[in-house]
Design a protein that fits this description.
heterodimer; A: 272 residues; alpha/beta; Rossmann fold; 2 domains; 7-stranded mixed β-sheet; 3-stranded antiparallel β-sheet; 8 helices; B: 294 residues; mainly alpha; MetI-like fold
């Protein structure tokens, strides 16, 4: 694993946190020597091997890599949905929310009921829930649509609904597994603005899995490039660009191009 | 904070709820009712015509095969309390037995289904047996039930339970087996663990399959109940099955056919309740419209 300096790419007015600032805030996610093996014998698949990664509180980290490099597996381990074969994942008792690639709003509930369920399971009293649901739906620009059922919403609306449900959990760490992969480019842009704004406003720690290099450069403080077979951290790219960022920013394009070269090499190696 | 992107819902809300909804594209209410009713009316007319033709042909004597007119006249006669038996008391007793037996089956079948789906040794032990029991005709249970409980209502309830429980249990087992893992993961992350996992995720997600199992369970319960009332005749408890048996024994074909029509109507009412419930669940989940069964 190596860390690439992005000083040559960084804009002088960069506002992303520096490594020193991140250290000062403390580590939110501490992954040490983590390996994950599925199956056994001839069918054994090493999904992750000896992964070390520390993510500071309030940091936005993107996990980037070819399909099958273990990005989602790593996210599942952090979420506690699976256990590592070896190594440790420590989130210091912080609350974790997960936003999945597919819209996982429950189809038997309305949008408002989906958000309400997250509040209820989080222990909020009934009287406080209704105004909070409305507030959260307003925050993701779905005010007045709480009565709709998931199938009555577009893909973008569903993901914003899922985002409202994530926010309802009042989590410190938000894990996002390619949440915008199925959205069209314009809706994805809008969601990038939305998630960046909420991250900044709420001081969340975000781990965001993506295949999209420009998305990673657009959103992250650091982008972790993972290699496959077995999955491990190949390089970490700090992204010191000012926020809010725009996809047509030449500095962002330059940063993305740099990461794309590495990713292409990695994808080609994976395909072979 | 974000770009102003207008997104359109994937499914249009019902006409009239959104401005600009195209009401003209929706057929009129009268046409909808006509489209739903005419096939049923046509089916009834065809059955009555075949029945009348068979009667007119003199295929069987009147006391063995009554005409539609005699049957419906008899139906009105007994329904107004003029028959040789207490018709409405019979309907009440039969329906109450069915409902009670079904509710007991629902409780036992649901608990059994959840236990089997969650506890692997139990599934290995009795999972296949539950499916096997589902295929056993209810009539097969009667000799055993009469031997154990005698000619008593308990024997009928026993057969209802043995018919309905496997279907209900299988419905919930397959429903739980088919819950999309994405919902389970999402529920887990929301904090739905332990009993809350069932309350908020597993049972609601399994509901369509569960309702299908309930519907099938009711069908088995109803069949077992009527067979039971025919076999286990308890003179002091008037019931449809008992009255059916008496009508056949006394050669009262019009009574017999009238009672059969009542049994059919009650069965269709129950079926309507379950199919309405299933349709409502499907509609709320967006599982209507472009489906395989168009």
């Amino acid at each position: 694993m190596s860390t690439v300096s992005s000083s040559s790419l960084a804009n002088s007015t960069a506002t992303a946190s520096t490594p020193q600032e991140r250290t000062d805030r403390g580590v939110a996610v501490d992954i040490r020597g983590v390996s994950k093996v599925f199956g056994s014998g001839a069918e054994e698949v090493v999904a992750l091997s000896d992964v070390d990664l520390q993510i500071a509180a309030g940091e936005f980290v993107c996990l980037l890599g070819a399909s099958g490099c273990g990005k989602s597996t790593l996210l599942n381990l952090v979420a506690g949905l699976d256990k590592p074969t070896s190594g440790t994942v420590d989130t210091h008792g912080k609350r974790i929310a997960f936003m999945f690639q597919e819209a996982t709003l429950f189809p038997w509930l309305t949008l408002a009921q989906n958000v309400d369920l997250a509040l209820r399971l989080n222990g909020m009293a009934k009287a406080d829930r209704k105004p909070r649901v409305e507030q959260l739906l307003e925050k993701v620009r779905l005010g007045g649509r709480g009565h709709r059922r998931p199938h009555e919403l577009s893909g973008g609306m569903r993901q914003r609904g899922a985002l409202a449900r994530v926010l309802a959990q009042d989590a410190d760490i938000v894990l996002m597994d390619e949440p915008f992969a199925a959205l069209d480019a314009m809706t994805r842009d809008a969601m990038h603005d939305e998630i960046e704004s909420l991250w900044s406003e709420l001081g969340l720690t975000v781990m965001f899995v993506t295949h999209n290099v420009r998305e990673a450069a657009r959103l992250s403080d650091r982008t972790v490039l993972m290699e496959s077979g077995p999955g491990r951290v190949k390089q970490i790219y700090p992204v010191h660009l000012p926020r809010p960022r725009h996809l047509d920013d030449p500095h962002l394009t330059e940063q993305a191009a740099h990461m794309t070269d590495e990713l292409k090499t990695e994808v080609a190696r994976h395909v072979r | 904070m974000s770009a102003d992107v207008t997104e359109r819902p994937t499914t249009a809300p019902p006409a009239g709820k959104e401005p600009g909804a195209r009401a003209a594209a929706k057929p009129g209410r009268g046409k909808e009712i006509f489209a739903a009713v005419w096939p049923k009316v046509a089916a009834v007319v065809i059955v009555l015509a075949i029945w009348q033709l068979l009667y007119t042909s003199g295929w069987k004597p009147d006391y063995r095969f009554a005409s539609p007119a005699d049957t419906f006249e008899r139906l009105v006669f007994v329904a107004t309390g003029n028959g040789p038996f207490n018709f409405w008391m019979g309907v009440q007793n039969t329906v109450m037995r069915g409902v009670q037996g079904f509710l007991l089956s629902l409780v036992i079948g649901t608990a059994l289904g959840i236990a089997v789906s969650q506890w692997k040794p139990l599934r290995n032990a009795i999972g296949a047996m539950i499916t096997g029991l589902q295929t056993m005709p209810s009539i097969v249970w009667f000799p055993f039930a009469i031997l154990i409980f005698g000619l008593d209502s308990a024997a009928i309830y026993f057969v209802i339970l043995m018919g309905a429980i496997p279907s209900i249990a299988n419905g919930i087992i397959s429903g739980i087996d088919d819950v999309p893992p994405a919902y389970l993961r999402a529920g887990h992350m929301l904090g739905a663990r332990g009993w809350r996992r069932y309350r908020y995720v597993v049972i609601p997600a399994a509901l369509p399959s569960y309702v299908s199992g309930l519907s099938q369970g009711w069908a088995f319960a109803w069949r077992g109940l009527l067979a039971g009332e025919i076999i286990v005749s308890i003179p002091e408890v008037p019931a449809l099955g008992t009255q059916l048996n008496q009508a056949a024994t006394n050669g009262q074909s019009s009574n017999l056919l009238a009672l059969m029509i009542v049994i059919l109507i009650l069965g269709m009412l129950a079926s309507f309740v379950f199919s309405s419930l299933a349709n409502s669940i499907r509609a709320r989940r967006g599982l209507t419209g472009f489906t395989a069964s168009r």
